[in-house]
Amino acid sequence: MATEANTADDGGLVFHPMDQFIVKPLFSDGPVGMFTITNVTMWMALTVLAIIALLVLGTSKRSTVPGRTQSIAELAYGFVYKMVEDVAGKDGVKFFPYIMTLFMFIVVSNFLGLLPAAFTTTSHIAVTAVMAMAVFIAVTVIGFVKHGAGYLGLFWISAAPLPLRPILALIEVISYFVRPVSHSIRLAGNMMAGHAVIKVFAAFAPMITISVGVGILVTPLSILAITAIYALEVLVAFIQAYVFAILTCVYLKDALHPHH
Amino acid sequence: MEGDVVQMGAYIGAGLACTGMGGAAVGVGHVVGNFLSGALRNPSAAGGQTATMFIGIAFSEALGIFSFLVALLLMFAV
Protein backbone atom coordinates (compact mmCIF):
# COMPACT_ATOMS: atom_id res chain seq x y z
CA MET A 1 0.00 0.00 0.00
CA ALA A 2 1.50 3.30 -1.09
CA THR A 3 2.12 5.62 1.83
CA GLU A 4 3.95 8.14 -0.34
CA ALA A 5 1.76 10.40 -2.46
CA ASN A 6 2.22 9.49 -6.10
CA THR A 7 2.84 12.28 -8.53
CA ALA A 8 0.19 12.71 -11.20
CA ASP A 9 2.89 12.56 -13.90
CA ASP A 10 3.37 8.80 -13.81
CA GLY A 11 -0.32 8.18 -14.35
CA GLY A 12 -1.10 7.40 -10.71
CA LEU A 13 -3.72 9.09 -8.58
CA VAL A 14 -2.76 12.14 -6.55
CA PHE A 15 -3.23 10.12 -3.37
CA HIS A 16 -3.89 6.47 -2.75
CA PRO A 17 -7.59 5.77 -2.06
CA MET A 18 -6.69 3.42 0.80
CA ASP A 19 -4.48 5.96 2.59
CA GLN A 20 -7.44 7.08 4.69
CA PHE A 21 -7.52 3.73 6.47
CA ILE A 22 -3.93 3.82 7.77
CA VAL A 23 -3.77 3.48 11.57
CA LYS A 24 -1.40 6.15 12.90
CA PRO A 25 -0.23 6.76 16.47
CA LEU A 26 -1.41 10.15 17.68
CA PHE A 27 1.40 11.20 20.01
CA SER A 28 4.49 9.45 18.65
CA ASP A 29 5.96 8.15 15.41
CA GLY A 30 6.76 4.75 16.83
CA PRO A 31 5.16 1.44 15.94
CA VAL A 32 1.55 0.75 16.88
CA GLY A 33 1.54 -1.47 19.95
CA MET A 34 -1.18 -2.98 22.05
CA PHE A 35 -1.93 0.19 24.04
CA THR A 36 -0.77 2.89 21.62
CA ILE A 37 -3.28 5.72 21.31
CA THR A 38 -4.03 5.91 17.60
CA ASN A 39 -6.54 7.73 15.44
CA VAL A 40 -8.79 4.65 15.79
CA THR A 41 -8.77 5.08 19.57
CA MET A 42 -9.57 8.77 19.22
CA TRP A 43 -12.50 8.27 16.87
CA MET A 44 -13.89 5.44 18.98
CA ALA A 45 -13.74 7.71 22.01
CA LEU A 46 -15.48 10.46 20.03
CA THR A 47 -18.15 7.94 19.05
CA VAL A 48 -18.76 7.02 22.66
CA LEU A 49 -18.86 10.70 23.65
CA ALA A 50 -21.37 11.43 20.91
CA ILE A 51 -23.58 8.56 22.07
CA ILE A 52 -23.39 9.78 25.66
CA ALA A 53 -24.24 13.32 24.54
CA LEU A 54 -27.22 12.03 22.57
CA LEU A 55 -28.65 9.43 24.93
CA VAL A 56 -27.65 10.56 28.43
CA LEU A 57 -27.60 14.33 28.15
CA GLY A 58 -30.41 14.34 25.59
CA THR A 59 -32.84 12.58 27.87
CA SER A 60 -31.64 14.10 31.16
CA LYS A 61 -34.38 16.76 31.24
CA ARG A 62 -37.17 14.27 30.44
CA SER A 63 -39.58 16.93 29.28
CA THR A 64 -43.08 15.83 28.35
CA VAL A 65 -42.81 17.67 25.06
CA PRO A 66 -39.43 16.39 23.83
CA GLY A 67 -36.90 18.74 22.27
CA ARG A 68 -34.85 17.83 19.22
CA THR A 69 -32.16 15.81 20.97
CA GLN A 70 -34.65 14.00 23.17
CA SER A 71 -36.81 13.18 20.14
CA ILE A 72 -33.89 11.56 18.34
CA ALA A 73 -32.88 9.63 21.46
CA GLU A 74 -36.45 8.39 21.96
CA LEU A 75 -36.73 7.54 18.27
CA ALA A 76 -33.52 5.48 18.39
CA TYR A 77 -34.61 3.69 21.55
CA GLY A 78 -38.07 2.89 20.19
CA PHE A 79 -36.68 1.78 16.85
CA VAL A 80 -34.22 -0.72 18.34
CA TYR A 81 -36.72 -1.91 20.95
CA LYS A 82 -39.32 -2.68 18.30
CA MET A 83 -36.73 -4.47 16.17
CA VAL A 84 -35.64 -6.70 19.07
CA GLU A 85 -39.24 -7.44 20.03
CA ASP A 86 -40.32 -8.24 16.44
CA VAL A 87 -37.34 -10.35 15.42
CA ALA A 88 -36.02 -11.98 18.60
CA GLY A 89 -39.39 -12.36 20.31
CA LYS A 90 -40.66 -11.35 23.76
CA ASP A 91 -37.97 -13.27 25.65
CA GLY A 92 -35.26 -11.67 23.52
CA VAL A 93 -36.10 -8.30 25.05
CA LYS A 94 -33.82 -8.89 28.04
CA PHE A 95 -30.87 -8.73 25.62
CA PHE A 96 -32.09 -5.36 24.36
CA PRO A 97 -29.31 -3.31 26.10
CA TYR A 98 -26.62 -5.29 24.28
CA ILE A 99 -28.21 -4.82 20.85
CA MET A 100 -28.92 -1.14 21.56
CA THR A 101 -25.23 -0.67 22.46
CA LEU A 102 -24.06 -2.42 19.30
CA PHE A 103 -26.48 -0.51 17.09
CA MET A 104 -25.69 2.91 18.56
CA PHE A 105 -21.93 2.34 18.40
CA ILE A 106 -22.02 1.21 14.79
CA VAL A 107 -24.45 3.83 13.53
CA VAL A 108 -22.69 6.72 15.27
CA SER A 109 -19.21 5.66 14.17
CA ASN A 110 -20.48 5.18 10.60
CA PHE A 111 -21.94 8.68 10.60
CA LEU A 112 -18.86 10.23 12.25
CA GLY A 113 -16.74 8.53 9.60
CA LEU A 114 -18.68 10.40 6.92
CA LEU A 115 -17.36 13.75 8.18
CA PRO A 116 -14.57 15.05 5.95
CA ALA A 117 -11.09 14.04 7.19
CA ALA A 118 -12.62 11.71 9.77
CA PHE A 119 -11.55 8.13 10.35
CA THR A 120 -14.14 5.37 9.99
CA THR A 121 -13.45 2.91 12.79
CA THR A 122 -15.98 0.39 11.45
CA SER A 123 -14.06 0.16 8.17
CA HIS A 124 -11.45 -1.99 9.91
CA ILE A 125 -12.11 -5.71 10.06
CA ALA A 126 -10.26 -5.78 13.40
CA VAL A 127 -12.99 -3.61 14.95
CA THR A 128 -15.98 -5.35 13.40
CA ALA A 129 -14.53 -8.83 13.96
CA VAL A 130 -14.39 -8.21 17.72
CA MET A 131 -18.07 -7.23 17.72
CA ALA A 132 -19.07 -10.16 15.50
CA MET A 133 -17.06 -12.69 17.54
CA ALA A 134 -18.62 -11.33 20.73
CA VAL A 135 -22.08 -11.85 19.23
CA PHE A 136 -21.14 -15.34 18.01
CA ILE A 137 -19.73 -16.48 21.37
CA ALA A 138 -22.58 -14.89 23.32
CA VAL A 139 -25.21 -16.55 21.13
CA THR A 140 -23.53 -19.96 21.35
CA VAL A 141 -23.21 -19.72 25.14
CA ILE A 142 -26.83 -18.57 25.51
CA GLY A 143 -28.00 -21.43 23.32
CA PHE A 144 -26.17 -24.11 25.27
CA VAL A 145 -27.08 -22.62 28.66
CA LYS A 146 -30.77 -22.43 27.75
CA HIS A 147 -31.16 -25.75 25.94
CA GLY A 148 -28.09 -27.84 26.81
CA ALA A 149 -27.32 -30.42 24.14
CA GLY A 150 -30.75 -29.72 22.67
CA TYR A 151 -29.22 -26.64 21.08
CA LEU A 152 -27.60 -28.99 18.56
CA GLY A 153 -31.15 -29.56 17.26
CA LEU A 154 -30.59 -26.28 15.42
CA PHE A 155 -28.53 -28.29 12.92
CA TRP A 156 -30.93 -31.25 12.68
CA ILE A 157 -33.84 -29.95 10.62
CA SER A 158 -36.76 -32.21 11.49
CA ALA A 159 -38.97 -30.73 8.78
CA ALA A 160 -36.73 -32.15 6.03
CA PRO A 161 -36.92 -35.75 4.73
CA LEU A 162 -34.72 -38.13 6.73
CA PRO A 163 -32.13 -38.96 4.00
CA LEU A 164 -31.53 -35.25 3.42
CA ARG A 165 -30.98 -34.40 7.08
CA PRO A 166 -27.26 -35.33 7.40
CA ILE A 167 -26.41 -33.26 4.32
CA LEU A 168 -28.46 -30.34 5.60
CA ALA A 169 -26.82 -30.73 9.01
CA LEU A 170 -23.39 -30.38 7.41
CA ILE A 171 -24.48 -27.27 5.52
CA GLU A 172 -26.06 -25.82 8.67
CA VAL A 173 -22.86 -26.41 10.69
CA ILE A 174 -20.75 -24.70 8.02
CA SER A 175 -23.14 -21.76 7.78
CA TYR A 176 -23.19 -21.48 11.57
CA PHE A 177 -19.43 -21.14 11.79
CA VAL A 178 -19.26 -18.76 8.83
CA ARG A 179 -21.61 -16.34 10.62
CA PRO A 180 -18.96 -14.24 12.40
CA VAL A 181 -16.97 -13.94 9.16
CA SER A 182 -19.84 -12.66 7.04
CA HIS A 183 -21.24 -10.63 9.94
CA SER A 184 -18.00 -8.68 10.39
CA ILE A 185 -16.82 -8.40 6.78
CA ARG A 186 -20.24 -7.18 5.60
CA LEU A 187 -19.96 -4.08 7.76
CA ALA A 188 -16.23 -3.47 7.25
CA GLY A 189 -16.37 -4.15 3.52
CA ASN A 190 -19.34 -1.88 2.92
CA MET A 191 -17.81 1.01 4.84
CA MET A 192 -14.35 0.55 3.31
CA ALA A 193 -15.63 0.21 -0.28
CA GLY A 194 -17.84 3.30 -0.06
CA HIS A 195 -15.11 5.50 1.37
CA ALA A 196 -12.56 4.21 -1.14
CA VAL A 197 -14.92 4.99 -4.05
CA ILE A 198 -15.38 8.56 -2.76
CA LYS A 199 -11.59 8.94 -2.55
CA VAL A 200 -11.10 7.60 -6.09
CA PHE A 201 -13.48 10.22 -7.46
CA ALA A 202 -11.89 12.86 -5.22
CA ALA A 203 -8.53 12.08 -6.83
CA PHE A 204 -10.02 12.67 -10.28
CA ALA A 205 -11.64 15.96 -9.27
CA PRO A 206 -8.54 18.24 -9.58
CA MET A 207 -7.95 16.99 -13.15
CA ILE A 208 -8.71 20.47 -14.50
CA THR A 209 -5.51 21.80 -12.92
CA ILE A 210 -3.45 19.31 -14.96
CA SER A 211 -5.14 19.49 -18.33
CA VAL A 212 -8.00 21.85 -19.13
CA GLY A 213 -9.22 19.83 -22.13
CA VAL A 214 -9.79 16.62 -20.18
CA GLY A 215 -10.56 18.36 -16.92
CA ILE A 216 -13.50 20.36 -18.25
CA LEU A 217 -15.33 17.05 -18.66
CA VAL A 218 -13.89 14.98 -15.82
CA THR A 219 -13.93 17.51 -12.98
CA PRO A 220 -17.69 18.34 -12.92
CA LEU A 221 -18.55 14.69 -13.46
CA SER A 222 -16.43 13.50 -10.55
CA ILE A 223 -17.70 16.23 -8.23
CA LEU A 224 -21.27 15.20 -9.10
CA ALA A 225 -20.31 11.57 -8.52
CA ILE A 226 -18.85 12.37 -5.09
CA THR A 227 -22.08 14.12 -4.12
CA ALA A 228 -24.24 11.25 -5.31
CA ILE A 229 -22.09 8.56 -3.67
CA TYR A 230 -21.94 10.56 -0.44
CA ALA A 231 -25.75 10.58 -0.33
CA LEU A 232 -25.73 6.83 -0.94
CA GLU A 233 -23.15 6.39 1.83
CA VAL A 234 -25.38 8.19 4.35
CA LEU A 235 -28.02 5.59 3.54
CA VAL A 236 -25.53 2.70 3.65
CA ALA A 237 -24.13 3.88 6.99
CA PHE A 238 -27.57 3.51 8.56
CA ILE A 239 -28.61 0.34 6.71
CA GLN A 240 -25.42 -1.52 7.60
CA ALA A 241 -25.84 -0.70 11.29
CA TYR A 242 -29.46 -1.84 11.02
CA VAL A 243 -28.44 -5.07 9.26
CA PHE A 244 -25.77 -5.78 11.87
CA ALA A 245 -28.27 -5.31 14.70
CA ILE A 246 -31.06 -7.26 13.01
CA LEU A 247 -28.76 -10.20 12.26
CA THR A 248 -27.75 -10.20 15.91
CA CYS A 249 -31.46 -10.46 16.72
CA VAL A 250 -31.88 -13.34 14.24
CA TYR A 251 -28.96 -15.25 15.77
CA LEU A 252 -30.39 -14.55 19.22
CA LYS A 253 -33.76 -15.92 18.14
CA ASP A 254 -32.00 -19.08 16.92
CA ALA A 255 -30.35 -19.44 20.32
CA LEU A 256 -33.60 -18.89 22.24
CA HIS A 257 -35.81 -21.07 20.00
CA PRO A 258 -33.64 -23.61 18.14
CA HIS A 259 -36.59 -25.85 17.18
CA HIS A 260 -38.95 -24.59 14.55
CA MET B 1 10.92 -14.76 -11.72
CA GLU B 2 8.83 -17.52 -10.25
CA GLY B 3 7.60 -15.19 -7.54
CA ASP B 4 6.49 -12.73 -10.20
CA VAL B 5 4.32 -15.35 -11.89
CA VAL B 6 2.73 -16.24 -8.55
CA GLN B 7 2.11 -12.56 -7.86
CA MET B 8 0.57 -12.13 -11.30
CA GLY B 9 -1.69 -15.11 -10.79
CA ALA B 10 -2.78 -13.75 -7.42
CA TYR B 11 -3.65 -10.37 -8.91
CA ILE B 12 -5.55 -11.94 -11.82
CA GLY B 13 -7.44 -14.14 -9.36
CA ALA B 14 -8.26 -11.14 -7.19
CA GLY B 15 -9.65 -9.39 -10.25
CA LEU B 16 -11.66 -12.43 -11.24
CA ALA B 17 -13.07 -12.66 -7.71
CA CYS B 18 -14.78 -9.33 -8.41
CA THR B 19 -17.19 -11.15 -10.75
CA GLY B 20 -18.76 -12.51 -7.57
CA MET B 21 -20.11 -9.00 -7.03
CA GLY B 22 -22.37 -9.53 -10.03
CA GLY B 23 -23.90 -12.58 -8.38
CA ALA B 24 -24.55 -10.65 -5.18
CA ALA B 25 -26.10 -7.84 -7.21
CA VAL B 26 -28.45 -10.27 -8.98
CA GLY B 27 -29.38 -11.84 -5.64
CA VAL B 28 -30.08 -8.57 -3.87
CA GLY B 29 -32.02 -7.27 -6.86
CA HIS B 30 -34.09 -10.43 -6.91
CA VAL B 31 -34.93 -10.13 -3.21
CA VAL B 32 -35.91 -6.47 -3.39
CA GLY B 33 -37.75 -6.85 -6.69
CA ASN B 34 -39.86 -9.70 -5.42
CA PHE B 35 -40.50 -7.84 -2.17
CA LEU B 36 -41.67 -4.84 -4.13
CA SER B 37 -43.96 -6.83 -6.41
CA GLY B 38 -45.46 -8.50 -3.36
CA ALA B 39 -45.71 -5.21 -1.48
CA LEU B 40 -47.57 -3.51 -4.31
CA ARG B 41 -50.11 -6.30 -4.39
CA ASN B 42 -50.74 -6.12 -0.67
CA PRO B 43 -49.40 -2.81 0.67
CA SER B 44 -50.96 -3.28 4.11
CA ALA B 45 -48.79 -6.34 4.79
CA ALA B 46 -45.59 -4.77 3.45
CA GLY B 47 -44.67 -2.68 6.49
CA GLY B 48 -44.22 -5.65 8.78
CA GLN B 49 -42.00 -7.49 6.32
CA THR B 50 -39.27 -4.90 5.71
CA ALA B 51 -37.12 -6.52 8.39
CA THR B 52 -37.46 -9.87 6.62
CA MET B 53 -36.42 -8.21 3.38
CA PHE B 54 -33.28 -6.81 5.01
CA ILE B 55 -32.43 -10.21 6.45
CA GLY B 56 -32.81 -11.72 2.98
CA ILE B 57 -30.61 -9.00 1.51
CA ALA B 58 -27.98 -9.61 4.18
CA PHE B 59 -27.89 -13.35 3.52
CA SER B 60 -27.64 -13.00 -0.23
CA GLU B 61 -25.05 -10.28 0.15
CA ALA B 62 -22.95 -12.56 2.33
CA LEU B 63 -22.00 -14.67 -0.69
CA GLY B 64 -20.79 -11.56 -2.49
CA ILE B 65 -18.74 -10.76 0.59
CA PHE B 66 -17.01 -14.13 0.34
CA SER B 67 -15.75 -13.20 -3.12
CA PHE B 68 -14.39 -10.01 -1.58
CA LEU B 69 -12.76 -12.16 1.10
CA VAL B 70 -11.16 -14.35 -1.58
CA ALA B 71 -9.83 -11.23 -3.29
CA LEU B 72 -8.41 -9.92 -0.01
CA LEU B 73 -6.75 -13.27 0.74
CA LEU B 74 -5.20 -13.38 -2.73
CA MET B 75 -3.93 -9.81 -2.44
CA PHE B 76 -2.48 -9.94 1.06
CA ALA B 77 -2.21 -13.56 2.25
CA VAL B 78 -0.92 -15.57 -0.73
Describe this structure in words.
The complex is a heterodimer of chains A (260) and B (78). With 260 residues, chain A is mainly α. Helix content of chain A is 64%, strand content 0%. In chain A, α1 (39-57) packs across α3. The radius of gyration of chain A is 23 Å and the shape is globular. Chain B starts with a helix and ends with a helix. Chain B has 78 residues and is mainly alpha-helical. Chain B has a single domain, classed as F1F0 ATP synthase subunit C (F1FO ATP Synthase, Up-down Bundle). The A-B interface holds A 83, 86-87, 178, 181-182, 185-186, 189, 239, 242-243, 246-247, 250 and B 48, 51, 54-55, 57-58, 61-62, 65-66, 68-69. Chain B: InterPro entries: ATP_synth_csu_bac/chlpt (IPR005953), ATP_synth_F0_csu (IPR000454), ATP_synth_F0_csu_sf (IPR038662), ATPase_proteolipid_c-like_dom (IPR002379), F/V-ATP_Csub_sf (IPR035921). Chain B: The record marks 61 as: Reversibly protonated during proton transport. Chain B: Residues 12-74 form the V-ATPase proteolipid subunit C-like domain.
List the helices and strands and how they pair.
The complex is a heterodimer of chains A (260) and B (78).
Chain A: H1 39-57, H2 68-88, H3 96-113, H4 125-147, H5 165-204, H6 212-256
Helix pairs in contact in A: 1-3, 2-3, 2-6, 3-6, 4-5, 4-6, 5-6
Chain B: H1 2-17, H2 20-41, H3 43-46, H4 50-76
Helix pairs in contact in B: 1-4, 2-4
